[in-house]
Amino acid sequence: TITATPEGYGHFETGGIASRAITDSTTKRNSNALLPLHTNNSNADTKKRILFSDEAKSIDKKVNANTILKEKDLNSNAFIIAPPGGSGFTYYNLVSGGVQFVADGIMPDSLITINFTVSSSDNANAIGTGSVLILPKGCPTVALSDSNIAPGDTIDVIVKRKINDTLYLDYPYGTLFNVGISDGKGYGTLLTAYGDTSESFDNVEAPIQFIANKNIEPDSVQVSFHASLAPIVPEGGNTRSIPDNGKTGLHKQHRKAKANGQQYLINSGATCNMPTALEIKTNTILLGETKYYHAIPDPDNVDRLIIHESNYPSLVDGNENVVFSDPIISPNAINNDKIGVYWEKNKHTPEIPTENLGNGMIRLIGRYWKANTMYKIQLHASLPAEGRNGYLEITVKKPTVLGNPDLNDDERHTRVTDVFGQTLWLDEWIFKYAGENGIPPQLIKGQMEKESSFKPKWRYEPFQDAQKTIKDDIFKNNKFVITDNSMGLSFPPSHSNSSVYPTFYIQTQIKISRYLYDNWGNRYVRYGENDNDPDLILGSKNLNDKWNAEWKKNITNKIKNPKVSAHTFVKSLIMDTSTAFGKGFDRLGQTRIFTSYGFTQMMYTLAITDGKFNAETEGRYGPTDTQYMDKTNSSKYPEMLNEQNILMPRYCDFLLRKLHLLFNSSIPESQWKITNRKIKIDGKIRTFNCNGFEECWINALQMYNFYELGYGNDVWNRTQKYLPK
After folding, report:
1. Can you give the pLDDT at residue 48?
2. pLDDT of 235 strictly over 80
3. Range in 11-15, 156-160, 414-418, 506-510 the model is least confident about
4. What is the DSSP track for 85-120?
5. In this structure, are residues 385 and 378 in contact, taking their beta carbons and an 8 Å threshold?
6. Global model pTM greater than 0.85
7. In 238-299, at which residue ranges do the beta strands (DSSP E only) sit?
């Protein structure tokens, strides 16, 4: 007696064909029990022959039969049985005692277990039990060998038969699929075993791979895939050789699509709902950004190190014996002729100036970025004692903004007004020139805040003017010298009256002394915080010393309002034409020539004397050793330094020159350090020392405005408000 429960999914038939022996069985055995033997599972649309023997036979013995079976005979799912009373194992025409269970094609919504019970009228105690699974239809879905990769990586795209959320089965050898990229086209390509590449394939068999593009602009992109069974199998099949062409890691082999008249499943075009399965993430560092890296051994690969980004400049979970090599240009870089980063190892950290960077770490700072150029570097870490190595490719990216992204564009000074009265997206201009020249963009913005509060300003420097005479070279052939009859040709007609600060340019002749007297308090005095804190005369050490002496004397003599009285005294010295000191101020002010302009306040006198393009800017803005501004050219107004496209190249060139002076040769790529560097400034030898990126930039900034005590530190402190984001 043979029964199957639940009913409705199949029926029994007598007879059977012996075809192969297998070793797997979930049959429960009792002594002298009848034994149902079967394969693992049954497809609802495929006959499954399950044959029963009349006594418990040793499956292990039957396995030996595989040695004489041919592949052409393996076309059914029957089990081998021995006829009653038979001896030995002869595997043909075995029908005696055979019973088969045939699935009727009813497709369940979930896995169904068919339980068999077999009993004999000859022996009531001889009971055999067994079971077989009826599989639901399932659907093709995509599984990936890795769900997170980097640009240039390759992964396997595996089509699986999804039965439910926990059961995924392989498709038979030679199954043909339609496979393609759903979302994220353009970020990579599919690759077949034959070396073909495309975003989609029809009638393709495994293996299939996905290759991410080497250069992907966004930091992170998502890619999803679709797959279905090909509805048509070519008649007679198709044979192609898989070339060993280096495009895949596959061995050379041959595959054949079997023309069996149908694919593995009915309704073969069905596809499971598939979530986005793949993230391609670029390891990036922003222009001007600092990042720290460490490495740990890969637990799954004895030869490999995994390089991680660190949250802090101290080694927390890395290996202190790891050695980082100097970064090199990645082979995936585009139009890249420089190392895109500055780096330090075992240098003082800006976060904790008294501590060194931990062993086994490296610090990187994004240094170069340009449009149409991909600055990519390759980081290499090694653990010599264990023979491990690790690599990481890092791309320098343009920031989105400089400063707090939660502020609006005006509050963050991302959007300002230029000298023409037009909206200027200042951060974009800074990114361009900072990225070309290897200057931290936040440094430029911090200096702009210090010098101009992000306005197209001018500032006349009367104290410098008073030290010169009309015979000096500054005035020779200069088209913009002010005389009794002329203001030195016209002013730039395109500059907006309302956009120039603090007022529009001085357009009438005025003596140096009168201009100083009229603008003394609002332009040339920095007032102390209280009565005990001295004021500062800006631009003249001589007058500042005179003011201090007079102020202290007034305090001693208990003069009322000692500060005000000291200012009155100093201004009287300027206006006194009977003295040699006063006579120096008693002439027409060269208010166009001795004036600084623009967001970073460059002096026009500098632009026509010492201001010459140097090798650090590589001829981008003008031939090396040519003057910033041509005083003999009547169309090159001094006020043009207030225009960002004129100012920025000259400012960057000048600042790089100051940085260059700190080193004996060209600016190094890494680990800046100088000791007792002697530099002549205004005829006097000055000594400089710096250790690391921040300190050396602070020194360069100080040389930009040498006589303002603490200028470099002041600018650098302002940069912290404008870190790249």
Report:
1. 41
2. no
3. 11-15
4. T--S---SS--TT-EEEEE-----SS-EEEEEEEE-
5. no
6. no
7. 239-241, 254-256, 278-281, 284-286, 290-297
In terms of Cα–Cα distance, which of 268, 9, 6 is closest to 135? 9
What single string gives the DSSP state of each residue in 296-326?
Answer: EE-TT-TTBEEEEEESSSS-SSS-TT-EEPP
Three-class SS state of 449:
helix
**H helices then E strands: how many in the chain?**
12, 40
Residue 114 contacts residue 106 (beta carbons within 8 Å): no
> What is the mean pLDDT of the segment spanning 530-556?
92
pLDDT in tens, 309-350: 988 787 878 888 999 999 999 988 888 788 999 999 876 556
527 backbone φψ class: left, alpha, beta (φ>0; ψ -120 to 50): beta
SS3 195: coil
Sign, CA torsion 662/663/668/671: negative
Q: How far apart are the first and last CA of the chain?
A: 78
Distance (Å, whole) CA 494 – CA 499:
11
- Find residue 627's DSSP bridge partners: 612
Task: Give the CA radius of gyration of the chain.
Answer: 42
Tell me the three state secondary structure of residue 415: strand
Residue pair 639/505 in contact (Cβ under 8 Å)? The answer is yes
Condensed to tens digits (0 to 9), the pLDDT of residues 385-422 reads 999 999 999 999 999 999 999 999 999 999 999 999 99
Neighbours of 690 (CB within 10 A): 18
pLDDT digits (tens, 9 = 90+) for 593-625: 999 999 999 999 999 998 899 888 989 999 999
Please tell me the predicted confidence (pLDDT) of residue 348.
Answer: 57
For the segment 150-156, the average pLDDT, to the nearest whole number, is: 87
Return d(Cα 473, Cα 631) in angstroms, integer: 11
One-letter amino acid for residue 98 of the chain: G
Q: Is 569 exposed, middle or buried (0-12, 13-18, 19+ CB in 10 A)?
A: middle
Residue 43 to residue 134: CA distance in whole angstroms: 6
CB atoms within 10 A of CB 514: 15
Inter-CA distances, 702 with 19, 405, 591, Å = 91, 29, 26
The neighbour count for residue 253, using CB atoms within 10 Å, is 9
Task: Enumerate residues 6+ apart whose C-beta is below 8 A from 484.
Answer: 509, 588
Beta bridge partners of 388: 383
**Residue 104: per-residue pLDDT:** 65
Report the distance separating Cα 292 and Cα 183, nearest Å. 33
Mean pLDDT, range 246-266, rounded to an integer: 32
Query: What mean pLDDT is predicted for residues 144-149?
Result: 84
Percent of the chain with pLDDT over 90: 53
Which own/partner contact pairs does 484-491 have at CB distance under 8 Å and 24+ positions apart?
A: 484/509, 484/588, 487/592, 488/592, 488/593, 489/634, 489/637, 490/637, 491/637, 491/639
Cα gap 150→215, rounded to integer Å = 10
Amino acid in the structure at residue 30? N
Is the Cβ–Cβ distance between 40 and 98 less than 8 Å? no
Q: How far apart are CA 88 and CA 103, in angstroms?
A: 31
